[in-house]
Amino acid sequence: ALPFGLISGPCQLESLDHARMIAEGLAQACAPTGTRFVFKASYDKANRSSLGAERGVGIDAGLEILGRIREEFGCPVLTDVHAADQCARAAEVVDILQIPAFLCRQTDLLFAAGETGRVINIKKGQFLAPWDMANVAAKVASTGNENILLCERGTSFGYNTLVTDFRGLPTMAASGYPVVFDATHSVQQPGGLGSSSGGQREFAPVLARAACAVGVSMVFIETHEDPDRAPSDGPNMIPLDQMQGLISDLSAFDRLTKGQMIR
Amino acid sequence: ALPFGLISGPCQLESLDHARMIAEGLAQACAPTGTRFVFKASYDKANRSSLGAERGVGIDAGLEILGRIREEFGCPVLTDVHAADQCARAAEVVDILQIPAFLCRQTDLLFAAGETGRVINIKKGQFLAPWDMANVAAKVASTGNENILLCERGTSFGYNTLVTDFRGLPTMAASGYPVVFDATHSVQQPGGLGSSSGGQREFAPVLARAACAVGVSMVFIETHEDPDRAPSDGPNMIPLDQMQGLISDLSAFDRLTKGQMIR
Amino acid sequence: ALPFGLISGPCQLESLDHARMIAEGLAQACAPTGTRFVFKASYDKANRSSLGAERGVGIDAGLEILGRIREEFGCPVLTDVHAADQCARAAEVVDILQIPAFLCRQTDLLFAAGETGRVINIKKGQFLAPWDMANVAAKVASTGNENILLCERGTSFGYNTLVTDFRGLPTMAASGYPVVFDATHSVQQPGGLGSSSGGQREFAPVLARAACAVGVSMVFIETHEDPDRAPSDGPNMIPLDQMQGLISDLSAFDRLTKGQMIR
Amino acid sequence: ALPFGLISGPCQLESLDHARMIAEGLAQACAPTGTRFVFKASYDKANRSSLGAERGVGIDAGLEILGRIREEFGCPVLTDVHAADQCARAAEVVDILQIPAFLCRQTDLLFAAGETGRVINIKKGQFLAPWDMANVAAKVASTGNENILLCERGTSFGYNTLVTDFRGLPTMAASGYPVVFDATHSVQQPGGLGSSSGGQREFAPVLARAACAVGVSMVFIETHEDPDRAPSDGPNMIPLDQMQGLISDLSAFDRLTKGQMIR
Fold first, then answer.
1. Rg of chain B over CA atoms, in angstroms?
2. How far is D235 from D227, CA to CA, in rounded Å?
3. Would you say C246 and C206 are in contact if contact means Cβ atoms under 8 Å apart?
4. In A, which residues are within 8 Å of C161 by CB distance?
5. Which value, to the nearest 10 degrees, does the dihedral of the CA atoms of residues A14, A16, A20, A22 take?
6. If phi over 0 gives left and psi between -120 and 50 gives alpha, with beta otherwise, what is residue A168?
7. N or C end of chain B, less CB within 10 A?
8. Residue D16 Cα to chain centre, angstroms
């Protein structure tokens, strides 16, 4: 099995300069371990907890920035799409289209994404069992596109809380599609701060390490140079200056696991 | 408080004749208690568990049928919308636009629905706490449209199971918006049949009665003349010939509750 | 079906005078509706959240008080037992022995309780499904004692929270044993206050009403003249001076339900 | 940090010869990695799902066997106690007294166990949050005995299912007490087979590995030479002949983690 790939970025695009700074930081953080990374950022936060929250730069400006990052850093880029008619447009620029968790059963969105031929990263809905993702993936695969990633990001557990069931990783892997573990959204506390979601940043490295020990193809970790000022998901993001240490740590577990698996 | 209103219909539109037959059955079932009903049917099942499941007649044929039912039976009609660009179109025909549970945080859909000025029935996501719905409603209300219904339809409880927390009804009612209880989707077992959702039809009347005792503005109950052959949600629908008895039963509890509340 | 019976009292025995005062209050609260009540109080709180919490008056003093209440008020009395060797002793005085929820699978306790021949009220563990209670009841029944009550008191739902699944009432009733709904423990928030359990007193009447609409044999409601000063379970108890109104309300729903059921 | 210790054995004592065979198997399985093991077995299964299930050899015969294993193999032994009056008796023989999960809030049992001065392994109740265990441990510590282990074994997640929240391991470790991860009970499906508990043996190694990556002091794994014929917990036990491979695998992750932590 290949070493794990990293999907990382600032959650929400702020500006080209900001995206460059984060991408530069990620490139440096990944260098010591030779970890490949996909730059992830959203041009639109389409389902914020509340009205007051910032939406983002929009699809045109967002794709422009992502295209520049792709070119300048030579890394694949990923963004999430929220409506069927955004898929073809985003696919002109990005390597991976991401289906948000809440939307993972929306058939038309899955079709439109699949038809672009791009890699499709499908977040598992917080309301789904791991085995339900086979039906979800089949919607994309029906377009003839088998470039599918299945992404764990926590399951509803009482109110305003998610829990990660690590049995879900091998269950989803049994589908044959590579599995991604989203460490920062898995520690979200949806709606937990009244008008925005809370998070438990301190547990993201704990869960990421567990995921690497169980065995995953990719790890998804949002980052920001100053998470407490990030326009979204700040409470669960990892500070950029801690990414190198975290990647190095995960890398060691990943190598051990992948070696073990060959055994 | 007014007597409860009923939202009912066949889940998925099959044909004009079928819709007429169901509407006629509902009119007869509601007559003895003088219960007002809203005819509900979907023109598109946009998030089926799996690929093999029927989608429906489509928006044009669907709205045509709903318009005819509205005219012929003099009842309000409701349908669910799945994308922002469907809202204005559906609003030409229907009285109530419904936001599906999975989509209840999609800001653009809530805006587009709100802007039609129609009544908006927002299903509470299976992944949300009752108090989180205030932020959801605020997205619609920001368009100047306060014609909002908040609808309970069960909360994720482990895998492939929903639970109804009746504390959620007064919690949502504290928002000032009328509360709807969806009895048939609350007994759904999402993904519970492998490639489709299961259901526990036998518990829908139990939960509906509890909801009427707690106090709600409307009750939502899907029905079919032969649920086991319905193209969707069969396992949790109430047979049409049992609707009169159920409405009469709920009516008695509703009257007691509403009287009690005045006390 | 018979009108619902009430199980009520101060949670923890404080003194004979206090028990008398509560029993007197309950007698008055039940009189207008002719509701039969069982006086419930614990002589020992054997599983408090934390060490600092009061345990109670002990088995000797407690049974003495319960015996006096039984004699003076002519009402049955109930207490909970925590070890097999307490059962025979408690059974000399009380009419109903209660098995605490955490202990509902302890075979020896169930045997010892069953062997007294008294009525046994078994609280459903927060960790059990309603259908699992048939196996629990069978342990008591194996002693030849079929005087069994099955009591719903909430199910674990995430951390520090319980949810009441009203499907559980008919599921447990299918066993043939009468079902009790414990309205005040169902709104407990276990461990929710750090070193003690919190509660949502305001929802106890809501859930009790729903239970009466679904149909139960008995309702369990703890009460205190000043809940905020009660030595245990204060946050979820109903003030004594609100009991008459609540009983009258529940009585109306119970009568409607029982009439309906005959239909 | 020290390498992880193993707690392992056949769940239920069957006979001295059987215990010897398992202990011998464990000794061999642990030898290559130099893993220390504690022999665990129960003399009484006091809370079986149903009546028909075997209880065990009893305290006298059980302690006799455990004493012999301790002497012959030179390993510490552990057993679980179910009533306060068993603690002193069991403590004459065993090194570690275990408090069952259902009983983890029973104050008198915790006191009696603590007073023996033995190491006390407290299983976290399926109904408790990780942070609630601090109050539980304080009950034991109040006896002056700080030899406490806190053991994760899964949390209620819907019906008949447990989920392991790996955030709980560092949360419990913050108490200062060593943390044990019980891999085989964490994959139990309580009541899941109708009259007995089911289990998902295949996930025990997955979760154990995740626990070792997160970092624990001990891992608890029940084993049997023929799990499908074991008198209890068969569906979640690891076959004895797979233990060496599993221990070696966990050992590699444990070493990496403990090294990492020193970093």
1. 17
2. 7
3. no
4. 158-159
5. 0
6. alpha
7. C
8. 20
DSSP D44: -
DSSP C261: H
Cα separation of D157 and A167, whole Å?
A: 13
Q: Is the pLDDT of residue B263 over 60?
A: no
Buried-state track D199-224, b at ≥16 Cβ within 10 A, e below 16: bbbebbbbbbbbbbbbbbbbbbbbbb
Percent of chain A with pLDDT over 70: 98
Q: What are phi and psi of D140, to 5 degrees?
A: -70, -45
Mean pLDDT of D208-237: 94
Of A126, A135, A195, the CB nearest to B49: A135
Q: Strand C198-199 relative to strand A77-80: parallel, antiparallel, unpaired?
A: unpaired
Beta strands B162-163 and B155-156: pairing type? antiparallel
B138 chain-A contacts, CB cut-off 8 A: 50-51
**C219/chain A closest Cα distance in angstroms:** 26
Q: Dump pLDDT digits (tens) for D152-179.
A: 999 999 999 999 999 999 999 999 999 9
Place of tokens 């619902």: C4
DSSP string computed for A23-49: HHHHHHHHGGGT--EEEEEES--TT-S
- In chain D, residues with a C-beta closer than 8 Å to the C-beta of C108 are 46, 82-83
Task: Measure CA of the first residue to CA of the last residue in chain B; give whole Å.
Answer: 11
Q: Establish how many alpha carbons lie within 13 A of residue A194's alpha carbon, considering only the half-sphere containing its beta carbon.
A: 1
- Reading the block at residue C137, the tokens are 């009841």
Q: For residue A143, give both structure tokens.
A: 């377009």
Does the reported pTM lie above 0.90?
A: yes
Helices (H), chain C: 16-30, 59-73, 84-91, 107-115, 133-141, 168-173, 204-214, 243-262
- Alpha carbon A152 to its chain's center: 9
Q: Which of A130, A153, A129 is nearest to A208 (CA)?
A: A153
